[in-house]
Amino acid sequence: MISPKSPGSVGLPNPNAAGLAYRAVRAESEALAAPLTPEDCALQSMPDASPVKWHLAHTTWFFETFVLAELDAHYTSFDPGFRVLFNSYYNSVGEQYPRPARGLLSRPSLGEVLAYRGHVDRAMQAVLAAGLPAESAGIVELGLHHEQQHQELLLTDVKHLFAQNPRLPVYRPTWPLTAVQPAAREWIAYAGGLESFGHRDRAATALELAAFAFDNEGPQHQAFLAPFLLASHPVTNGDFIAFIADGGYRRPDLWLALGWDAVQREGWSAPLYWRQEDKRWQTFTLHGAADLDPHAPVTHVSFFEADAYARWAEARLPTEYEWELAARDLPRAGNFVESGALHPLATRERGMPGLPQQMYGDVWEWTQSAYLPYPGFQPGPGAIGEYNGKFMASQMVLRGGSCVTPQAHIRATYRNFFPLAARWQFSGLRLARDAP
Amino acid sequence: MISPKSPGSVGLPNPNAAGLAYRAVRAESEALAAPLTPEDCALQSMPDASPVKWHLAHTTWFFETFVLAELDAHYTSFDPGFRVLFNSYYNSVGEQYPRPARGLLSRPSLGEVLAYRGHVDRAMQAVLAAGLPAESAGIVELGLHHEQQHQELLLTDVKHLFAQNPRLPVYRPTWPLTAVQPAAREWIAYAGGLESFGHRDRAATALELAAFAFDNEGPQHQAFLAPFLLASHPVTNGDFIAFIADGGYRRPDLWLALGWDAVQREGWSAPLYWRQEDKRWQTFTLHGAADLDPHAPVTHVSFFEADAYARWAEARLPTEYEWELAARDLPRAGNFVESGALHPLATRERGMPGLPQQMYGDVWEWTQSAYLPYPGFQPGPGAIGEYNGKFMASQMVLRGGSCVTPQAHIRATYRNFFPLAARWQFSGLRLARDAP
Amino acid sequence: MISPKSPGSVGLPNPNAAGLAYRAVRAESEALAAPLTPEDCALQSMPDASPVKWHLAHTTWFFETFVLAELDAHYTSFDPGFRVLFNSYYNSVGEQYPRPARGLLSRPSLGEVLAYRGHVDRAMQAVLAAGLPAESAGIVELGLHHEQQHQELLLTDVKHLFAQNPRLPVYRPTWPLTAVQPAAREWIAYAGGLESFGHRDRAATALELAAFAFDNEGPQHQAFLAPFLLASHPVTNGDFIAFIADGGYRRPDLWLALGWDAVQREGWSAPLYWRQEDKRWQTFTLHGAADLDPHAPVTHVSFFEADAYARWAEARLPTEYEWELAARDLPRAGNFVESGALHPLATRERGMPGLPQQMYGDVWEWTQSAYLPYPGFQPGPGAIGEYNGKFMASQMVLRGGSCVTPQAHIRATYRNFFPLAARWQFSGLRLARDAP
Amino acid sequence: MISPKSPGSVGLPNPNAAGLAYRAVRAESEALAAPLTPEDCALQSMPDASPVKWHLAHTTWFFETFVLAELDAHYTSFDPGFRVLFNSYYNSVGEQYPRPARGLLSRPSLGEVLAYRGHVDRAMQAVLAAGLPAESAGIVELGLHHEQQHQELLLTDVKHLFAQNPRLPVYRPTWPLTAVQPAAREWIAYAGGLESFGHRDRAATALELAAFAFDNEGPQHQAFLAPFLLASHPVTNGDFIAFIADGGYRRPDLWLALGWDAVQREGWSAPLYWRQEDKRWQTFTLHGAADLDPHAPVTHVSFFEADAYARWAEARLPTEYEWELAARDLPRAGNFVESGALHPLATRERGMPGLPQQMYGDVWEWTQSAYLPYPGFQPGPGAIGEYNGKFMASQMVLRGGSCVTPQAHIRATYRNFFPLAARWQFSGLRLARDAP
Asked: In chain D, what residues touch C92 (CB-CB under 8 Å)?
């Protein structure tokens, strides 16, 4: 992929481009943290979330551990204690500081973490300039995509933290966008059949431009789909308000049993961050509190809520194959982190007739597919093999990226995954139906 | 199906046969409870399990609520309070007595519950003899299969209860079987391809013999399978001992992340009910404590343990489609509840060359398939629609039945399902591999 | 104490009387269990409560372990496994079966437990007839008082179990008593001063009649009391209804901080077992559901509720010394288990002017005294030393006995104790004030 | 009290002195926070602890809410949201931000909190200079003692936070003190008798110098004590190592039942912050990790550990009356926060023969007295009445102050209190015995 003029994208065709891509992704993380105070960066609002400082350090740890320390037995680490402190879940690397306690580390300070980033970046620039063996180059590429994932988490985690604060802090003060009236929703028909899915084998292409994919996206394989219909747009806030008004959160017949348990246990009565004042729905955004735009895609719903909504709407969620079939020939355009909106937006322009809108960006779309290995899936060797495969249990696949995903990070085969009750990601849904 | 000479099977071709089938299934439940004291029948050892008395009452409630009360608006219930007390999870029927508190009901006594069964059975015999409208006949058939499911649970729940008791009570004192040396395990190759799976549409066949299936087994649909290998036998206790000896429960690299969490949290170091004394492995059975037979299929393992074992063995679990493809032409023979063994047994006889052994009976086999709706799945209308569909989240499919399943209850398309950490069912595993 | 014509009382002056006392107390336990089914006797409704069967067995274990096995090295135990199974909390005796799992033991059956009682009773009768060494005689006496404590618990635990059952089972079907209008409440003045409290030294008197006391009642010691007022009667249901009506459960200013936490966490809005239907207050009793008698003492309140009520009434709870000073010259008469009422009753007769009523029986009265060792307290040696002393933390003292206490079991120096949030005992309160 | 040359003490005899005392106490809080980063000040390591920033803000809120807003209906608050945000537990003032979530507030920043302090301090200086009505003067005095309590908590909470960090941050880098060999421990005899305890009535003396006491220290009242012995020194680290070496944490007979539960549940095997490396005991201090001084008083033990140690040593804890009797004529000298040691120290100098050493400072001494109201205790009216009284449940009294208590804050009648399992305060113990 990715000429130097696309600074957000990554790929390692040659030393020059590699260095540029590295610098671009690394700088983006720091730019995302720039509006935050050291205190904002130190706190952890729940075990699922991590402090911003931890994201900045852990992504750096990835390069130090898997590239620098592997390439050079005499590499001097910035701080030997960081090997444990910023290891997320790599048992092969050794012990880990406990995840729910990441918010108890006032030291190292944000300043020290930024110095750590500088130390590792200087060493990385040197090895990138010198040229890398193929294996390490693959790890660098993985590390950059890994960092982009953490950029998204950095924003969703800060949003969750700020939402706990009665002062409702503002991450970005501008709210540049006005509501528009989008096109009406339509059903788009797909014939299905025996098709190929997933990313083609990476082995031959690891250093090709734009060829990157995570191991969980392959191997490419065939699957058979029956004919189906897919909605032209994601479900909107307005749609969801109708669901609520119709007793959606009070009718057990609409919910999976575990979903109904969650409604009762957690007291859900609306998507996360929604609040009704004087009959007006508001939500919390990275720009602070805001009125709900009825035409924008609903977000911060769990799989359980997405599934219940679909049942109420006499539809269903698409499978991940259905979604991929519909998306794979569409341009990867949409409302990504680069737009600066940091919130899903109503469709502004007329799409191509007969093609779905907003498949990429705005909201991750829950599918009805469990996150499981594709046929023939093999995790990579060693620590890198812990990246994706060991999480293939009790999670559902989401597709398409969101308003806080870097544009260059997404593709048609990309499989995101979260537990069925998770709500703090920018997760929404699009309806599907069996063909009549 | 099911001529009168096969008393354990069910099917409702005509009033006579219907009455016979009804009597046979109902009598079997009481026969299973016969060795138990009233105290044995009243206790609940964990929220997942229910008291035997509750199983006896709830299966009766099913016929009273969905057949008798529906057919006759003037039907006099045995006790109006039972409508809430013995409702398991049917929100459409109304409130439910809380599941974890089922063991707090010393009243009604076992005697009263048996009287309740008598009351309902007399009324059922009358309506069966008079002939039923088609819809009710379908419900009766469902009710009998429902009762067979609870017969299996009755035994697994009593086993779990008895295992909590330091006196290790014996459910059935005989242990009729001696260890044998089974055939060596082989890999059997399957070509895969585009195949049909699931039970054909029930709508047309609801009253045909042997046509019964649960709604979650349909609709029949196509899926594409790559070539694969399937093991000729389930994994044995001896195999599992080797896994344990090789540090299987101490190596995080072998486990899914949630599985490793469970190992740590629950302190698992062997399958449920195993105990090592003087380096000899023992297990608890419905016949009391017994030495482990190394050649018998391992059982009482969770999905997480099955998955970890398969990884250690450089194999994987089969998908439910792979299992069904291999099983669908095999005779439904095996070690079922009718054998009286109530425990998995080593293969006694040479199977057909090139065909898998012990696919039916002995142990439910964990698959790597999440329990999700088949394409086009629609739950039935009303309360019956709550039977299966609402549990399609965070569970995995098991196939083939076990040593406590009634033989007539199982079939190639049968989809059992349990959460990934459940161990108290007779659950085991069979290995699969991608074809080379 | 206790001539043979007072069969409920205990004391061991000579072999004959000892045998009579033993038989009387043991028979009473079985009489209390007689109206119950085996299933009633097997269940445990919460970790604080025990199954009736367990009470019957544990009290027997006490004599077997501390008398029979100590006296005769060749004593043949009924079942060696019972040593662990029915050990409550005596670490010195060894391991204990976990308390919250006492309700998981369907075996031994109630019949076996009664046979166990018979086995131990026969052996005990023999040793009692032969005459006992002084030390063992003291243990027998302790064991009988211990059994009386468990008789009370047997009733409160069955009541709690039955209250979980929507059928509201009846322990004793008669409700022999009608409401009466009691005398008005008055304040009775006491001068206080330097007084002696607690039971005089047991060492010299262990075998005297009526001399029994638990170790926690001594040694006798002096304490200084300021002048105080004590209410002539316990707080009634009618009083407590006024507290509720005045928002008593909704006003944090009336509660200790931990008490207010309990109100929120447990959702308390009335005493345990109260239920309001159509604005009429009902409660659950051992006779089944019953209308509240406004003139009867309130019961099933926690220390926190007693304390909050007293604050609302501009009074306070008495200290245990104040209570003892007022009680010590009063006759030990009142509504005890022997009356058969099994529920607190309104005062039926005019008391002596200037003397408090209902100090003994009806309801245990919460005091504002923490359950702590008296000056000079020393627990006994060995296992018996675990009887009382190790519970002297985070509990409050209650005084006076209740409607389910055996009359011979209580005395002015008796110190009962329960955690501050416990409500399932027959606990009530009486107000006190500083003298003006 | 308190001439200008005693800057740490408080008291409000006249406007000038009041202003000085106010400034001195307020400046001390900021001095204690000065070595900390904004991130250090924002974090909360457990629900019992609070962020430093919260301590700084809440003590300010106290003056704003109870003095400034009460005196002047037109007082302009710094931020109206702080009324809820920094209310600790005053239900009378209204809602409170949840205590366990205090560590989720990155905003207001430390800088804003310091600005809040400046705003309130300027307003306070003005009202103090103008002279205060008597009631407000009493509140100011209370507020200053309140702030001193939070100064101590600020240090114990930072210590707890730093101890969670594998980097073991250092609060104060100097460790000025060397180990010394203290005098041998002796028993000091006291005759007991009928004595007066508690602080004399405050009503008449609220504005007298040095007359301050909390409401829970009164009213003064008589109590009778039997003769007793008190140890000349607190129990030392060396003493406690002997207890550990003798199996102290593995012998249930030494523990209260709830204490033994805590040992099992929490896995206690030594005081908090102790760690054994290569058979050498280390502890964590505000100066970082340090070797244990065997002659210094043991600290960071719970009541349960103190009680178990005393039982092992064939002694007991003193009652709070015994402690007060021994302390009341001693000079209030010792190792307080002003020494800068911030850790308990071995006795450096020979004390007066026959008088106990280190009664004040070094470590809070657990007593065997429950924290309960003194006879005649009445909490103050309104919100101030919530200060002490509502916590009189399930806590034990500690006496004497610690190495992080301001010297002017302590006195013989001072009653500190903590739950029985709390260990993060500088809590230790001194032995007592009944006189022979």
From this structure: 253
B314 — alpha (psi -120 to 50), left (phi > 0) or beta? left
Q: Does D393 touch chain C (CB under 8 A)?
A: yes
Put simply, the answer to whether A37 touches D109 (Cβ < 8 Å) is: yes
Query: Which residues in chain D have their CB less than 8 angstroms from residue A169's CB?
Result: 106-107
D142 is written with which tokens? 């209370």
Segment 134-193 of chain C within 8 Å of chain B by CB: 161-162, 164-167, 169
Residue type, A186: E
Q: Do chains D and C touch (3 or more CB pairs under 8 A)?
A: yes
φ/ψ (deg, to 5) at C368: -90, 15
Can you give the pLDDT at residue A382? 77
How far is the C-alpha of B269 from the C-alpha of B262, rounded, in Å? Answer: 11
Sequence-distant (6+) residues with CB within 8 A of B251 are none
Look at residues C401, C397, C287 and name the one whose alpha carbon lies nearest to residue C334.
C401
| Cβ–Cβ under 8 Å, residues C367 and C318 | yes
Of C38, C45, C105, the CB nearest to B104: C45
Collect all residues of chain A within an 8 Å Cβ-Cβ radius of residue B226: 221-222, 375-376
Q: Which among D84, D101, D106 is the nearest to A40, CB-wise?
A: D106
Q: How many CA atoms lie within 13 A of A254 on its CB side?
A: 22
Q: D213: helix, coil or strand?
A: coil
> Rounded to an integer, what distance in angstroms lies between the CA atom of residue D355 and that of residue B43?
63
Mutation to test the D interface, candidates A107, A158, A160, A171, most D Cβ within 10 Å: A107
Mark yes or no for CB contact C164/B101 under 8 Å.
yes
**Which of chain A's residues have a Cβ under 8 Å away from the Cβ of B420?**
393-394
Task: Give me the phi and psi of C351, to 5 degrees please.
Answer: -85, -175
Among residues D306, D405, D379, D432, which one has the least CA distance to residue D90?
A: D379
- At position B41, the amino acid (one-letter code) is C
Q: Between residues 104 and 143 of chain B, which touch chain C (CB distance below 8 Å)?
A: 104-110
Residue A263: phi and psi, rounded to 5, are: -55, -45
The strand order across the sheet containing C280-285 reads C274-277, C280-285, C288-291
pLDDT 10s digits, B338-391: 999 999 999 876 667 889 999 999 999 999 999 999 999 988 777 788 889 999
Nearest to B107 among C103, C105, C169 (CB): C169
Q: What is the pLDDT of residues B233-255, one digit of tens each?
A: 999 999 999 999 999 999 999 99
Q: What is the gyration radius of the CA atoms in chain C, in angstroms? A: 22
Is the Cβ–Cβ distance between B368 and B396 less than 8 Å? Answer: yes
Cα–Cα distances (Å) from A70 to A23, A74, A76, C282, in that order, read 21, 10, 12, 75
| Model ipTM value | 0.93
Whether residue D391 and residue C253 make contact (CB cut-off 8 A), yes or no, is no
A222 touches chain D (CB under 8 A): no
At residue D1, the pLDDT reads 24
Distance CA C90, CA C385 (A): 9
What is the C-alpha separation between B311 and A248, in angstroms, rounded? 42
Q: Cα angle vertex C379, ends C373, C385, to 5°?
A: 130
pLDDT tens, position by position, A393-411? 999 999 999 999 999 999 9
**Closest residue by Cα to residue D188 from D309, D355, D383:** D355
Tokens of A319: 């499978």
* Chains touching chain B, criterion 3+ CB pairs below 8 Å: A, C
B contacts of C105 (beta carbons < 8 Å):
43, 164-165
pTM for this prediction: 0.94
Q: What is the DSSP letter of A281?
A: E
**Dihedrals φ, ψ of C67, to 5°?**
-115, -65
Is D207 an 8 Å CB contact of chain C?
A: no
The radius of gyration computed from the CA coordinates of chain D, to the nearest angstrom, equals: 22
